[in-house]
């Protein structure tokens, strides 16, 4: 792996671990759940790094946040679901953008959809295996509904950031 990729991976993991803390300080834990700040650097990493490294950024960002906060953010078992979802985000964004040469918007939206679908499938599988009855606040609809502002934030802010980065030659492709 190139030194540049290691540095960028470390930067995105650090941002993924620290950005939620800023949001929690500004607006409490609810703001982080609503605006999904850890997702932003992971998704951007998907456009700058190759798929395996972007996958690692997605997996390690919530782990580092968990360790940084002494195990409080994200709490277990949310940590495990976030590792899966964010890993998919980074991997799919990178794969779509780098290998399949899809546009920034299409790569971003596909990675967000697939990350949510896999997260939901794993969540449903685990609850079925453990024979859990969940309170309404933990239902898939409630979880997805709560994160709509974060999804909007990602779709509105990430493409302009990526287009600016592309103009600087920072993305893997310069034809985006």
Q: What is the distance, rounded to the nearest whole angstrom, between the alpha carbons of the first and last residues?
A: 24 Å
| Number of E-type strands | 0
Main sheet, how many strands, which sense, barrel?
Answer: none
**What's the SSE pattern?**
HHHHHHHH
Give the overall pLDDT as a whole number.
Answer: 89
Computed CA radius of gyration, to the nearest angstrom: 16 Å
- Can you give the helix content as a percent range? over 70%
Oligomeric nature of the chains = single chain
Strand content: under 5%
Bulk shape: globular
Short description:
This protein is mainly alpha-helical. The protein has eight helices and no strands. It has helices at residues 3-27, 29-35, 39-48, 51-68, 78-99, 104-129, 140-146, 148-167.
Structure commentary:
This protein has helices spanning 3-27, 29-35, 39-48, 51-68, 78-99, 104-129, 140-146, 148-167. It is 77% helix and 0% strand. It has 8 helices and no strands. Helix 1 (3-27) crosses helix 2 (29-35), helix 1 (3-27) packs antiparallel against helix 3 and helix 3 (39-48) packs antiparallel against helix 4. By secondary structure, the protein is an all-alpha fold. The model has no long low-confidence stretch (mean pLDDT 89). The relative contact order is 0.13.
Can you tag this structure with a few keywords?
single chain, 176 residues, mainly alpha, 77% helix
């Amino acid at each position: 792996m190139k030194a540049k990729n290691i540095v960028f991976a470390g930067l995105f993991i650090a941002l993924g671990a620290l950005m939620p803390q800023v949001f929690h300080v500004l607006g409490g834990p609810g703001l982080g759940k609503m605006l999904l700040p850890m997702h932003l650097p992971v998704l951007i990493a998907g456009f700058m790094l190759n798929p395996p490294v972007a996958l690692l950024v997605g997996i390690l960002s919530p782990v580092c946040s968990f360790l940084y906060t002494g195990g409080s953010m994200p709490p277990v078992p949310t940590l495990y679901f976030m590792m899966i979802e964010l890993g998919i985000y980074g991997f799919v964004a990178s794969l779509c953008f780098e290998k399949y040469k899809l546009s920034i918007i299409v790569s971003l939206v596909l990675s967000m959809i697939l990350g949510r679908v896999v997260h939901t499938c794993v969540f449903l599988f685990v609850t079925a295996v453990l024979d859990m009855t969940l309170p309404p606040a933990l239902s898939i609809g409630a979880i997805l509904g709560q994160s709509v502002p974060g999804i909007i934030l990602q779709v509105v802010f990430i493409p302009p950031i990526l287009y600016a980065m592309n103009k600087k030659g920072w993305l893997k492709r310069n034809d985006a």
